[in-house]
Amino acid sequence: MSIAETGATPYYAVIFTSTRTEGDNGYGEMSELMEAAARKQPGFLGVESAREEIGITVSYWRDLESIAAWKADATHMIAQKTGREKWYEQYVTRVCKVERDYTFKRD
């Protein structure tokens, strides 16, 4: 996975921080499906994710309407429900407006 190229500010970040239950129980497959589906959504700019004991996924969006549409997507709603029932011990979702970003990339 690489660092998302989001384009010009301002844009929005959805930060999803979680701790998981034991075992995969279909989580890996659903995670891949959700990322692929999110990439097809209007307003999606990119995603970055890391997991050890705590998982952090940051998705980037053009505007709040795009975030709301993704949250209401039928397949995403099934994944959210299943996450609460099977995959997560706890999670928090934060939505932030990105006013500035700074980039460094080694040549």
From TrEMBL:
Transmembrane segments annotated in the record for this chain: none
Gene Ontology MF annotations: monooxygenase activity
Biological source species: Trinickia dinghuensis
Presence of keyword Oxidoreductase: yes
Pfam families documented for this protein: Monooxy_af470-like
Signal peptide: none
Record's keyword terms, sorted: Monooxygenase, Oxidoreductase
Top-level taxonomic group: Bacteria
Protein name in UniProt: Antibiotic biosynthesis monooxygenase
InterPro entries referenced in this protein's UniProt entry, alphabetically: Dimeric_a/b-barrel, Jasmonate_Hydroxylase-like, Monooxy_af470
